[in-house]
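ZP: hey, is the molybdenum atom complex queued? I don't see it on the tracker
AM: it wasn't, my bad. submitting now with these inputs:
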Amino acid sequence: GFVGKPLPRFEDDVILRGKARYVDDVDLPGMLYAGFVRSPYAHARVLKVDLSDVAGHPGVVAVFGPGGGFDFAPGGKVRYQGEAVAMVVARDRYVLYDALEKASVDYEPLPAVVDVYEALKPGAPLVDESLGSNVVYERVYTGGDVERAFREADVVVEGRFSIQRLVPSAMETRGVVASYDGETLTVWSSTQVPFDIRKEVAKALGLPLAKVRVIQPHVGGAFGSKLLVYPEELWVARAAYVLRAPVKWVATRTEDFRATTHGRGLVLEYRAGARRDGRILAVEGVVYEDAGAYYWGEGLADTAARMLPGPYDIRHGRVKAVAVLTNKTPLSAYRGAGRPEATLFIERIVDHVADELGIDRVEIRRRNLVRQLPYTNVFGITYDTGDYPATFERGLERLGYHQLRKWAEEEARRGRLLGVGLSVYVEITTFGYETAILRAEEDGSFTLYTALTPHGQGLATALAQVVADELEVSPEAVKVYWGDTAYIGDGIGTMGSRSITAGGSAAIQAARKLKAELAKAAEKLLGCRPEYGGGKFRCGGREISIGDVVKAVYRGKAEAQLTVESIYHAEPTFPFGVHVAVVELDPETGFVKPILYRSYDDVGVVVNPLLAAGQVMGGALQGIAQALYEEVVYDGDGNLVTSNLAFYHVPTAAEAPRFEVHFAEEPHPSKHPTGTKGIGEAATIASTPAVVAAVEDAIRRVKPGVRISKTPVSPEDIWR
Ligand code: MCN
Ligand code: MO
């Protein structure tokens, strides 16, 4: 079979030759260019929007202020720097940017609130007055008998860990093109959710779904930041509809930093109780989410709270999830969306308990890992399959954890400061339904339409592999199309590390249906009930190729459906793994360099080890950057200080450590037809705690007892 083979991506040829078409490459006759007048203030009343000079600027085609379906500055207020107050449409981009300068907006600046704790104080400025406070969401998760567990604990540790905000930083900024020809409204967007955009655009404009087509062209990364339907998508669609002309908007990098959701930005206040032998009995805490100006990223604090126990058998817990509005860009999903936070939090708590009891970091994990799967954690989440203790031990061995520690000891004697850090995780991947349409072509090749929305994962290759195995043909004979609502009616898309599991399983189901259909036709043609294998139907000493069966059906000589649709509903599935990081600390400067990163993941069946390893490396690098330097900074007035890539540091290959990626030799498949669990976010989730632990390890060689309680861990933090 082809599943398990490291096939190079079919997508690469078009991408590497520069032939891939992104939103900004969509060029239509008569294209107009849209831009937005955006607030320089983080919090202000909008007193007057005067666009008359803009409208009079030569080359400006239309201006749209608040009203008429353009819901700019709702409530007459802007709540974050960069919030749109008006839209301008011009003949070209040069005219557009000149014209935007001429907008005259009267603002009455209001005090901004940029810190969660400040936002919670009585008398704090209110981001949304109608709420009466800045708390936009609150929910408590409990299980077991927390009071009793704390009474029975021999030790109780408590602390706080805070995680910075991050910009998901897709290489391609967001952008939209919309065009209305009087019959169909077509929208191209750099998005993960064409089906959602279609529904919302249709609703906003009062059009039947059938007359709205959304195309997701090639997308240069998203990392969760393109899974919402953004206001710009609706506004550009509306402008094109009103003007009956094609309209394009592509965000500049700074505009993208302000108008595309940020990620992370959670704080945990915790208490944990354990027995002297290291068994952790209870965790308790509050997760505060710095939600930003609008509560768009629902569920982040909840996921962090409900996954807080991680892979450990902790039977008593109470965690409150609180989302707090601030005058910042709205917060939403960024690679892992709540699970990186939960994992970093619990790994820090476990290390804290270990320190308190003087127990080794491996040993404490050994004593607390969940032993029996399936397992329902204290907040009601059921981990499906796995053998955590066995995978943990094999992982440590395979990653050479103990040898690495010895190496660090030896180097320390020579004056070189190395730190070795370990992390263990369990995470949730996959949810919801996904759809696939499979069509048999008359030469025995196959066309698969998927509702998945890949944007760098290489899914066209992986899907071809799973379909090829099911149909017993070559992956070269399977062509995968994605990203167009004209292909397929509905679906969710690529996010939550769900694609190969949900969409791949839908594709396998479709392949099974199609095989059953073709078997009916083959039976008629052969006159006996055939077996299928290797691309041929056989019985009674006769055989016919799958292509000939299809051809016969197209010619009306036998009957079968040649196009089948499948909708698959996928319950979540839970990867587990062990990761190890080695860093080097420069004692002069406090500069930390990640030098080696090793991973060992049980993600069930690995469809394509090359793609999966790519996910691990890219994902880990993002988590490493979170640990060491990436950070969104706002000043006290809510100005975004890190407003472009000169001030906001994303990792490049030059910052990458050496990677050694392993997958479990004895994996525990999920119950889905693919047997897979997601890998798209696992390494982002596992890497930050491993690196934080490694940095702590290195620092402790010179300053024993130091405990890291925030990310990023900057050189300033290290020598403070
Ligand atoms: N895979 C595999 N075997 C498995 C699991 C996955 O071979 N057991 C392969 C899949 O075939 C696919 C890739 O690994 O090619 C990732 O699959 P999966 O884990 O199903 O994740 P998704 O395809 O749903 O990708 C989403 C995930 C998320 S949620 C974020 S965020 C993220 C990520 O993918 N954003 C990315 N990786 C990214 N990679 C790139 N280049 N760009 C992004 O924006
Ligand atoms: Mo994601």
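AM: back. The longest helix spans residues 499-526.
ZP: great, adding it to the tracker
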